[in-house]
Write a structure and sequence with these properties.
mainly beta; four-stranded antiparallel beta sheet
């Protein structure tokens, strides 16, 4: 059973293979970035000129490579928002930190919030997501 990550705006599949493909922008540089679909794994792959623009504590803007819509979460602008589709389940909401170096990911499934990352405890999942 494959986890499918989709854009919450156009419903386009963001992980047609193994990695999640997004557009990232930082310091007037923009490029493709590949993220791990495994919650809590913060390794990424991108062009070196884009990577040079990333600074600890600075915000990265993520957008959909298909519809170009900004993926910034409505509930907290320090997070990006995706949907996770798993066969036989309702879509789950994925929120991950846009702040470079901050490792926090949340999966919201109805009223249940599962957190990942060393910095996740800095956020109160229940109040943060309104669950």
């Amino acid at each position: 059973m494959k986890n499918t990550f989709v854009c919450p705006h156009c419903q386009g599949v963001l992980n047609p293979n193994v990695k999640i493909l997004l557009v990232a922008a930082a310091k007037r540089r923009k490029g493709m970035i590949l993220l791990s679909p495994q919650p809590g794994n913060y390794k990424y792959i991108c062009d070196s000129s884009l990577q040079d623009a990333f600074q600890e504590g600075k915000t990265i803007t993520f957008s959909c490579p298909m519809c170009a819509t900004d993926l910034t979460a409505e509930g907290n602008p320090k997070f990006a928002h995706l949907e996770l589709h798993v066969t036989g389940h309702k879509p789950r909401q994925i929120e991950f930190s846009r702040v470079f170096g901050a490792h926090a990911t949340f999966i919201v499934d109805g009223n249940d919030v599962t957190s990942f990352g060393d910095d996740a405890e800095d956020f109160d999942g229940t109040n943060f997501f309104g669950a």
